[in-house]
Structure formats: structure tokens, C-alpha cells
Amino acid sequence: MKDYATGQLRNVVLLGHGGSGKTSLVEAMLLTSGAINRMGRVEDGSTVTDFDQEEIRRQISLSLALAPVEWKDYKINLLDTPGYTDFVGEVKSGIRVADLAVVVVDSVSGVEVGTELVWGYADERSLPRVVVVNKLNRDNANLPHVMESLRATFGDKNFVPLQLPIGNASTFSGVVDLLKMQAFVGSDAKGSPVPAELQDEAQEARVAIIEAAAESN
Would you say residue 45 has pLDDT above 90? Predict the structure, then answer.
């Protein structure tokens, strides 16, 4: 790994309720960045950030773990945190050094108790954050329900999606990037035109992003 100037370093902490998929998301980021060539699984005890024998046995994160990646001339330090309240000290330690929080929410469960707790911890530090809705390929995945639960729980925030899913649950195959207005299906990194059946929804969602950005100014 090459040397980086301070301005090229970012610390990103992943937060969320236990079982929302933070560790698996870190694995996906490591794979996409080229830091690893095979994605590990929590169930197999083969993930980068759950390396402790007790974590492997219990299949949960017990402590804060660091996973650095290189991406477009930046070094991003991913901080994987436990989701269970017994380990709140580890969570707050990660938040303290982070530049940004990624709050991971289960696509079936929506906002859970752990989601509310970590959101409050991030509020204490005025930490910028984004929400990742995870596990959209699961049965009963429901993005509209998740968006409703976010707005109902954190009503003072304006949540707008930056991506739309292509398909749902067993038919989930990719996403529409609303900033680039391109579809990304499977491992296709080049992108393709937005599917015709999603054109209207994508345009409406893009307008919502523009309006939210204008209101924030």
C-alpha cells in the first residue's frame, strides 16, 4: 500500500443493529476494491474483520475492527463495529475517529432498536451519515417500507434514495444509480441504460435528490 497525504485519508464507520450485515458489506467493499480476491462469509468464519475465534464461533462481531481499502487515489479505513448493545464502547470508539458513518439497515426489518441507538450516538458527534439498505435479495425485502420507517423514526431528516433496486427479493438483480442514471446489473461495472419499466420512477427519484440538495443550501 502506497503512502497517502492526510487529505487522501478517510475513516468510515459502519453502524447498525446486530445482524444487519455490516461485516458482509465490508467484505463486499474489500472485494470490489481489489483488497481481497474472494468474499468471505460470516457463516464460514472467513471474513476479514471477524477474525477472533469467539467471533467466529458466535458468528457476531465483538470488537471494533479496521479494514483499509484503496479507492481512486484515496485510502479508506473501514471500521466495522459490533451491532449488539453489550459492546457499545467499541461502537462509540469507532464513531469518535470517523469522518462519515454508514448506517446499515435490514431491508426486511427496517429501523430497529440498534438503528436508533447508533443514530443517537452519531448525533452526539454531529457525524455525517448515509444509510445503506441491505439484503434486498431476501424474501419480503421492502424498500418502500424501510424508507417509511426511516422517515417515521427520524422525521427531521430528509431521506432520498441515491439508487433504486432492479427487481425485489428473488428477482433482485442490480440497481439504478440515480446520479449517473445508469443501471448496474450483476458484476457489470460499466453500466447500461435504465430499464424502460423504471424510467419514470428513476426520473422522479432523481428530481427528489435535486430538490433535497437545493433545500440543504
Answer: yes
In whole angstroms, what is the distance from residue 95 CA to residue 89 CA?
A: 10
Class of domain 9-158: alpha beta
Q: What is the mean pLDDT of the chain?
A: 94
Query: Domains of the chain: which residue ranges?
Result: 9-158, 160-216
The sign one gets for the Cα dihedral 24, 26, 32, 36 is negative
Beta-sheet pairing, 163-166 with 129-134: unpaired
pTM: 0.92
- Sign, CA dihedral 179-185-190-193, equals negative
Distance CA 198, CA 203 (A): 9
Strand partners, 65: 80
- In the chain, where does DSSP find H-type helix? 22-33, 53-58, 88-97, 113-124, 143-153, 199-216
Residue 217 has pLDDT above 70, yes or no: no
Grid cell at residue 216? 440543504
Q: Which of 105, 124, 101 is nearest to 113 (CA)?
A: 105
Are 64 and 79 spatial neighbours (Cβ–Cβ below 8 Å)?
yes
Q: Are 18 and 113 in contact (CB under 8 A)?
A: no
Q: Are 74 and 10 in contact (CB under 8 A)?
A: yes
